[in-house]
Amino acid sequence: MMWINKIIAGIIPLLPKKFVWFFSSRYIAGRTLDEAIRVSKQLNTDGYLVTIDLLGEFITKLEEAEKNRDEYLNIIDAIQKNNIDSNYSLKPSMFGLMIDEKVCYENIRQIVQKAVNYGNFVRIDMEDSQCTDNEIKLFRRLKEEFPKNVGLVLQAYMRRTKDDINNLSVIHFDDNPLNLRLCKGIYVEPVKIAYKKYDEINRHYLEDLELMLQKGMYPGIASHDNNLITGAYKLLEKYNYKPNRYEFQMLYGVTPNLRKSIIGKGHRLRVYVPFGKDWFPYSTRRLKENPKMANDIIKALFIRG
Which of 69, 109, 181, 270 is catalytic? Predict the structure, then answer.
């Protein structure tokens, strides 16, 4: 059955966007900020924290970077106005990272400064391997100026991640622990730089998480994998980590029952809430990551039809 799902997953990105939206609408809060606010309010009501993400990446013109910056500034004001318990996630490539690093930094710095004005927090998402060094450098620079208000994402399938954790640990402060989201990784990378096998990736994920706990960091444990969640529980108990020193994180629309069980056990959980008109690349990437989701599209077609 898996090979059929993979075939469907490969075909669906070639189909009309209206069709793909059957799948996407489950995993994206909407196309507009108003829709993202509505979803976020409900998640807060249900006991979850959220992180807001405006979809978009790899722009080709710096004018687009300015537009994205201004949109994020508006988002932050709107989230604050609506009293939503949320922070923010962003991808540097949508602010000009691959065009002009200086412009990218200035754009993101303005966003972080706006969040700081409200006592809030911005996480720098990790993109594919061509961005890794520049995004770590960007994070280090922002962390120096805003030690309490900026975090980073690392990907367990990258062979370099353990070294990155060790290298970043030098900017850790007891009163401002390094805040890192640890995820498996979604981009297609060569085997030379990335682990490929499920068991191999999971083993390194838990090794990376344990290293973060040993160094007193604040981990965002981002996974929908039951095996990793169980492994994380054991590590948190082993290192006597209090609930205010970590959080679990999950994507909107994915494994809601597992999500409920995590907060039912007394852990904090933050839901990643993506929205925006540039939903199509995000959706197709999620599909490639998990071909089983292809079944959801087919079911949605018949249910909604």
Answer: 181
SS (H, E, C) 132-180: HHHHHHHHHHHHHHCCCCEEEEEECCECCHHHHHHHHHHHCECCECCEE
- Residue among 53, 125, 164, 296 flagged as catalytic: 125
Catalytic: 100? no
Secondary structure letter of residue 52 according to DSSP: E
* pLDDT tens digit sequence for 165-185: 999 998 765 578 999 999 999
**Paired tokens of 260:** 């409920």
Per the DSSP assignment, residues forming a β-bridge with 9 are none
The tens digit of pLDDT for each residue in 149-158 reads: 999 999 999 9
SS3 call for 288: helix
Please, what are the domains in the chain?
29-275 (3.20.20.220)
To the query of whether residue 140 is one of the catalytic residues in this protein, the response is no
Whether residue 73 contacts residue 109, with contact meaning beta carbons closer than 8 Å, is answered with: no
